[in-house]
Amino acid sequence: MTNTKRLFLALALATAAAIPLSAGTFVPASAATADDLNKDASQALQSLYKTNQLADQISKKARGVLVFPSVVKAGLVFGGSYGEGVLKRGTTVIDYYNSVSGSWGLQAGAQSYSYVVFLMNDNAMDYIAKSQGWEIGVGPTVVLVNEGVAKNLSTSTLKDDAYAFIFDQEGLMVGLTIEGTKISKIKR
Predict the structure, then answer these.
(1) CB atoms inside a 10 Å sphere around CB 75
(2) Pairing mode of beta strands 142-144, 92-119
């Protein structure tokens, strides 16, 4: 799916964000193929590993890696984002997922970004496999790794269920919002 189509989808989500979102209620008009997602996810991981040594180290201890190579977010008071990705165990793709969020608040702009969630234990892997959609903040503990967290984190101090890295951000999105994200399994 091109960034233009993703931006259009994110803008559509932004206008629909006043209605409770359900990941299963919409399907993008031109979804990425499984091969496209696999290739894009591998490229995104390589990009992350080249720029973040800690992510590369964490990947070696992770039970699984959830990769969203391109998420598009847009909003003007109401906002939304959408992206598709893969769950990998080692080099094997296990399943395909989408990431959908809705937000409300003082916000304006549009951006695209990539994100990766390293699932560190069997509990986290089981949860994502068995749940009908993983709402971030519910279920396994997810730590967003930014520069401050990274300074105090090493592979010997890992103790949480999952670690998320956001990278390759483009565009501008500003605001103060209330936001929820749901990750759900999709068919490819």
Answers:
(1) 30
(2) unpaired
Residue 185 structure tokens:
């399994």
Rounded Cα–Cα distance for residues 130 and 153 (Å): 29
What integer pLDDT is reported at residue 151 of this predicted model? 46
Per-10-residue mean pLDDT of the chain, 188 residues long, equals: 58 46 40 90 96 92 96 93 95 94 91 93 88 66 62 55 88 79 90
Residue 93: C-alpha distances to residues 17, 38, 39, 120, 161 (Å) = 31, 8, 11, 17, 20
Q: Which one-letter amino acid corresponds to residue 156?
A: S
Supply 177's token pair. 């919002």
Using one digit for the tens of pLDDT, what is the confidence trace for 108-141? 999 999 999 999 999 889 888 888 777 765 556 6
Pairing of strands 64-89, 134-135: unpaired
CA distance 78 to 104: 5
Asked if 69 contacts 48 with a C-beta cutoff of 8 angstroms, the reply is: no
The encoded tokens of residue 125 equal 């892997």
Q: What's the pTM?
A: 0.77
Spatial distance between the Cα atoms of 112 and 102, rounded to a whole number of angstroms? 15
